[in-house]
């Protein structure tokens, strides 16, 4: 019988699912930015030479994430266009959930999920496995190469923000002026409203940097042009 999971339950069972995998591990998540605990568990699976497939579908990987994947031999990473599903599966259990493999989601969001044990509901498990394997087949495997990691020097704009300088930005929901900081792109009033649901993918109306109408979100607070111009001088939720 499937079991309902709250935020804590999803995080706990995901960690256990990875730790207990002995043959197969499939991790499907649009966003990919793992916390250290999950990285350690996956490194252990890599040492055991377990077949691990990671499917993601949003944005380019950060250099540090890219290089970490490059250091692992048994983990294959693939890109799936228009991916929105979040599903984590081993040879014995499955989690279908709202939670991305993204450390912001794991720490800040209110999530839900369903936990399925193969021994208790083999038919449901097999149906999920069939769809997961379909996503694996239609995904393009990424040949991960070592990426250049920026020098550990504080970015000028980030330094200005920390010093409290009045660097102008815009609230991505209402468009009002506020201090420029892509990591905090809401004014206090709109942030309070966003906090009711804590959906980092919720579509907003404006670019945080130029203030022009744009389909933005907490996780992607600027238009593509502003991101491209400022990615080396500002800190973004996803690089």
How would you concisely characterize the structure shown here?
With 239 residues, this protein is an alpha+beta fold. The chain is built from eight helices and 14 strands.
Keywords for this entry:
single chain; about 240 residues; alpha+beta; eight-stranded mixed β-sheet; two-stranded parallel ribbon
| Helix-strand sequence | EHEEHEHEEEEHEHEHEEHEEH
Global shape: globular
Strand arrangement within the widest β-sheet reads 1-9-7-6-2-4-5-10
Measured distance between first and last alpha carbons: 40 Å
Low-confidence stretches: none
Structural class call reads alpha+beta
Strand portion: 15-25%
Q: What helical percentage do the residues reach?
A: 25-40%
What would the average pLDDT be, to the nearest integer?
85
Biggest sheet statistics: 8 strands, mixed
SS element count, helices: 8
Description:
Helices cover 33% and strands 22% of the residues. It has 239 residues and is of the alpha+beta class.
Helix-strand blueprint:
Blueprint lengths: L2 E3 L1 H14 L3 E5 L3 E2 L2 H12 L3 E6 L6 H8 L4 E5 L7 E4 L2 E5 L3 E2 H6 L4 E5 L4 H17 L1 E2 L14 H7 L5 E3 L6 E3 L8 H7 L9 E3 L6 E4 L7 H7 L9
Parallel strand pairs: 2-4, 3-8, 4-5
Antiparallel strand pairs: 1-9, 2-6, 5-10, 6-7, 7-9, 11-12, 13-14
